[in-house]
């Protein structure tokens, strides 16, 4: 009986465990291309092609910025001067991104982040799945 109880406790611990939110921070920096959006009603919108990508930069003080870029055929990027400031905070076991411009402020929550994918939930309950951007190599 004791072994069964230990087994059940271990199963619940393994199933219920999710990585601590601070583990996501090293993966957020970089170039991200939107892959899909899942609306609050469950409807999915696939992005087979997007002409812009997001560049996110976070420094050691957990502050940084996000900027929209347009890749070009030479391997570079076109950009505007618009930039969103960004601050990361860990709150209630969640990794939150606080954005700001001169016109607005808002929050998004990182649900998961890895070397290849970034999943973010916004305040409208829309989930955005990003994949790591890889430039097209023209040879």
Oligomer: single chain
SSE order, one letter for each helix or strand: HHEEEEEEEEEE
Give a short account of the largest sheet.
8 strands, antiparallel, barrel
Strand neighbour order, sheet with most strands: 1-3-4-6-7-8-9-10
Helix content: 10-25%
Mean pLDDT: 87
The radius of gyration is 18 Å
Number of helices: 2
Structural class based on helices, strands and sheet pairing: mainly beta
Spans where pLDDT lies below 50 across 5 or more residues = 9-15
Number of strands: 10
Describe, in plain words, how this protein is organized in 3D.
By secondary structure, the protein is mainly β. 14% of the residues lie in helices and 47% in strands. It is globular, with a radius of gyration of 18 Å. This is Lipocalin family protein. Pfam families: Lipocalin_4 (PF13648). Residues 28-118 form the Lipocalin-like domain. InterPro entries: Lipocalin-like.
């Amino acid at each position: 009986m004791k072994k069964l109880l230990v087994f059940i406790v271990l199963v619940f611990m393994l199933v219920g465990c999710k990585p601590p939110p601070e583990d996501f921070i090293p993966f957020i920096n970089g170039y991200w291309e939107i892959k899909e959006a899942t609306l609050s009603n469950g409807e999915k919108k696939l992005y087979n092609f997007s002409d812009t990508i997001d560049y996110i930069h976070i420094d050691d003080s957990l502050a940084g910025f996000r900027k929209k870029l347009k890749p070009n055929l030479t391997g570079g990027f076109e950009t505007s001067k618009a930039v969103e400031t960004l601050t990361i905070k860990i709150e209630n076991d969640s990794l939150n991104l606080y954005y700001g411009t001169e016109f607005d402020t808002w929050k998004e929550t990182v649900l998961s982040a890895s070397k290849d994918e970034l999943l973010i939930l916004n305040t409208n309950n829309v989930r955005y799945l990003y994949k790591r951007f890889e430039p097209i190599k023209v040879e």
